[in-house]
Amino acid sequence: MRYLLFMIALLVLDSCTQESSKQITDAEDYNVFLGSEESNKTSKYFELWNSKIQPDSMQLMSFGIVAGEYNRYFQETGDIKQLKLAEKALVKAVEIAAIGKSGYYRTLARNYISQHRFKEALELADSSRAMGSGVEESQKLLFDIHMELGSYEKAKHYLDSIKNMSDFDYLIRLAKWNDHRGDLETAIRFMEKAKDKAESSKNSSLMLWSFTNLADYYGHAGRIQDSYDYYLKSLRLDPQNAYAKKGIAWIVFSHEKNPKEALRILNSVTKNYLSPDYYLLKAEIAEYMGNKAEMTNNLDSYAMAVVNPDYGVMYNVYNVGMYLELTEQYNRALKIAEVEVNNRPTPGSYDLLAYSYFKLGEKDKALEIVKQHIEGKTFEPRILYRTAEIYKAKGEYSKVKELKNELLGATYELGPSMENKIINL
Question: Does the keyword Membrane apply (predicted)?
Answer without folding.
Answer: no
